[in-house]
Amino acid sequence: MGAIGIDLGTGTTVVCHPREGVVHDAPSLLVEWPSRRGRELLIGDAAAALDGRTPPGARVGHPVRDGAVTDLGLVRLYLRELLRATAHGRWHVRRPHAVLSCSVDATPLERRALRESAEEAGCGRADLLPAPLAAALGCGLDLGDPRVQAVVDVGAGTAEIAVFCHGVVLARRSCRHAGDEMTAALRAHLREQHGVLLSTSVVDALKTAASSAREPLAAEGRDAATGRPRVVPVEVAEIEAVLAPTVRRAGAALGDCLDDLPVAGVPDLLAGGVVLVGGASLAPRWREELETALGLPVKVPERPRTCVAEGLALAGGRPELRSLPA
To answer: Options 3.40.50.2300, 3.30.420.40, 3.40.50.12280, 3.30.70.260; which CATH number does 4-134+307-321 get?
Structure first.
């Protein structure tokens, strides 16, 4: 059997099996729930359903913050439960081989800590691959191509770009102008301008729906003055205007990587364009703002949310791709 791909992100974790495809796509969240039997652990959708509704004594944990692992103990616990929840005996492997995503800016110490945490959680062996390279592989790009290629990965905590050639990263940039910043900006705007308090999940849903909606969207929350339930209609153009500054800041920060790009690689990017992936890239204006900032055509693949995990699973069968230096 090949390796399972685990894209452990700030907002979402996606697990892909090399033969069965995506078997897990849920929030990166763990809830330790007090019960009569002791401590009950919930992850993913089950944990998200209880977020904000937890009683005293419950613990809500995010294994990744702003694109980085901050609590290795929590990561080990989360990955252990993730392996249990996704296996269900289907792989018949007690300690599966896994390939995990990492940031293009991850230090050797951060890489080692993540690898060891995965192995201690139950992986027989854990390899790492920078998320943009995994996304390229999942989108069908050839990492061994001598032409220069580029991928932008926009997650909840970070947005990053990698420009690579023949499997080697030539230029890279990372910034924190990403999904969480857009969510915070939209939540603050709706509170100040419409007087409504919204949960993170509702704001995230509005943010994503605005990319394809044509009619006003309904924001369901609590009136900031009275505390009563309230539904507010919000125009799509208004949401786009609130999100646009974050997207422009990200585009400017990521565009700086072109300063490090060899001049000979520019024609390749003009011909092939830049691939845009990541769950937060589904929010409005990303494609347009990146094309303006980079001066290059930007393409969105068919499955931008899951292509990183799909690429990680493919990399498991290709030893030369595992743990490529960023």
So the answer is: 3.30.420.40
